[in-house]
Design a protein that fits this description.
By secondary structure, the protein is mainly alpha-helical. It has a domain of 159 residues. 25% of the residues lie in helices and 3% in strands. The strands form 3 sheets. A two-stranded antiparallel ribbon has the order 1-2. Strands 3-4 form a two-stranded antiparallel ribbon. The relative contact order is 0.12.
Length: 494
Amino acid sequence: MPRIRTAKSVAKRIDLQYFARLHPFRRWKLWLSIGLPVLALGWILAVNAVGHQKVYSPGPVSEAHAVFGDRCGLCHLSTGSFRAPVVDAACQACHQAPAHNQRQTFTPACSSCHVEHRGTIRLAATADNACAQCHADLKSNDGTQRFDGHVSGFDRHHPEFSALRSGHDPGTMNLNHYVHLQPTLRGPAGAVQMKCDDCHRPLNVDEPWPYSVAVVQPASQQPVAVGPTGAQQRKRRSVEAGPGAYMTPIKYVNQCAACHVLQFDPLIAAPAPHSKPEQVHAFIVQKLTEYVAANPAVLNSDPVAALAYNDEGPRNFLRPLGESTEPRNIVRPLQNALPRAQSATEWVQVRTAQAEKLLWSKNCHVCHQATEGGGEGLPTSVQAIIPSRWFPHAEFDHEQHRMMSCISCHSRIPQSRLTADINVPGIELCRDCHKQGGRTVSAAPGGCFECHSYHDWRNEKRMEGTLDLTKLRGIHPAGTENASSLPAASGTAK
């Protein structure tokens, strides 16, 4: 007769007290759960007793601090603890970082923005939330709001660039980009096709300017080396901003002199200097005085003969001395002009008056918006203003964008006819390449730190280092681990 097994009868065979007795596997599990933490704690205490602190490090330090990555005490002034925060005094021992803004309501700790132990990264690459903690709802200690008070990121809640919001170029120089980019533009030696690089180059480019000197006649001025203007002082450190952040300021002797030559008289080879009216006047008088002294026979002719004055068109190019009879150089006599000067002084005075009329009314007026009458008949030119920096509160490095053509960003330049046109790109164009997620979305980084710096490095003060190799690396310059173990130096070097 087969045995009948029911669930109830089988359940009675189960040992309900199995948990009260240690199984071999459970015994090992218990010992390991106790032994491993004790072993880890003992190891921490042991390495701490001998002075090693690397056990506390949660990861590698940044590139800038990698040289002393195992010298924790240089930054963590309190040691022997899992929590040894870095105080600002430790950072300021090596970095004299200038203040951000005198109107800020609070100053965050250095380590709250520059977070270490995240790998070999740049500490300047701060997270957006470090900036947004203030600028998302900006406050000032005087209650005055000078910037947009709600900026939390480049892709979101960022205003249009201030240069474009103004709607008008503040420059006072007449410049028609459309005309200068025409393929049939008349240059000093024939037709030329200008390109952007002929006039606009980053500061770090040291090459000759193609239109810097007159090629038909010798120029009275030579090209000059131009450095950054006061407005182009970087708020970021130069090591971060790169060498080509800004364009070389425009100077007449560098970019304009070959085409816009200030010839004032076909009898004088040298053009007038591009300078103040009183200096131009003195130059003209001197040259004409020297000419009449060397050529006294000129007193027998009309003092205004063969002077080029023509209201019908611009006169920008130097005429060779043998071409004074060209139709555009034929004189239009003054109504009250004397047929002959009574003296050399009178000849110079009459000739100077006509030459300056040519300069002030034609040559100068081509580029300068207006001239106003001044003392002794000399004009007072409107101050020449050419913006040298369009983003005063941000940094833009042209060198980092050298793979792109100028027109790809400054797309309105080929059709720009007015000086008032603002031809810098808008924020939407920048957003096409720069995204908040950076490389994770196949784009360039779009973090705040890419264009803005918290510290105003223009006010940075140089400081002397305080560390020697023993403190920095834990070794003596000769390579031994302990400087005290070296014998005293004796003898002389061979």
